[in-house]
Amino acid sequence: MQVVPLNQLIPYEKQEFTLDLLHSMHPNDPRNKKPRGSIIVEMAFVPFLEDSPKYSGRIDVAGNGSCNNFHGNISVSGSGLLLVAVIEAKDVEGKKNHVSPYATILFRGDKKKTKSIKKTRNPVWNEEFQFLLDEAPVKDKIHIEVIGKRRQRLGFMTKESLGYVDINLADVVYNGHINEKYNLINSRDGIIHLDIRWKVI
After folding, report:
1. Cα–Cα distance between 79 and 199 in angstroms, integer?
2. Of all helices (H) and strands (E), which one includes residue 31?
3. Angle at CA 54, nearest 5°, toward 48 and 56?
4. How large a percentage of the chain has pLDDT more than 70?
5. Regarding the domain delimited by 80-200, which CATH topology (the fold level of the hierarchy) does it fall under?
6. For the C2 domain, which residue ranges apply (predicted)?
7. How confident is the model over 85-126, as pLDDT tens digits?
8. How many CA atoms, within 13 angstroms, populate the side-chain half-sphere of residue 54?
9. What is the pTM of this model?
10. pLDDT tens for residues 122-150?
11. What are the strands, taking DSSP E only, across 26-123?
12. What are the domain boundaries of the chain?
């Protein structure tokens, strides 16, 4: 395992490091002593500390005065809008076939849900939900769960969890935006695609 000491990193500045390639991540593995080449990496250290000063500028990670991976006007104080877009899920399945999945979003006691998509393992929702907040949710998590419902022979509807994910929102606040696919917990192969943004008002 390669380690870059934090005291060698300058906050918000791009730096280049040459790291030796290792056979394994075990530090005492004797095979790591054999030369295996090296890799050159570029790093930009962005400290996400609660007591760090408010950042409202642009981080020059590309080294040319522009930045595509970080967003300006990032603030950890004041009110804002949390935008949660539930794009789609893949390979979600219930105990029996022919479930109609929908997603629920639970945040600070507020629960929202998407429409259900009939009889599919790969639902596409493309629905966005908004949460107006008095302060940035740097210490909060958001719970998103995929639920499958199906009609029994007597006409009653039954529901079952097809998997869930809990997401720390600190990265969303400090980066302004995340667009990721997550493996669903308690699901064999299920994946959910989310786009979450934090906008300061």
Report:
1. 9
2. none
3. 105
4. 77
5. Immunoglobulin-like (2.60.40)
6. 62-182
7. 999 999 998 877 668 999 999 999 999 999 999 989 999 999
8. 9
9. 0.63
10. 999 999 999 999 999 999 999 999 999 88
11. 38-44, 80-90, 100-107, 110-113
12. 8-75, 80-200
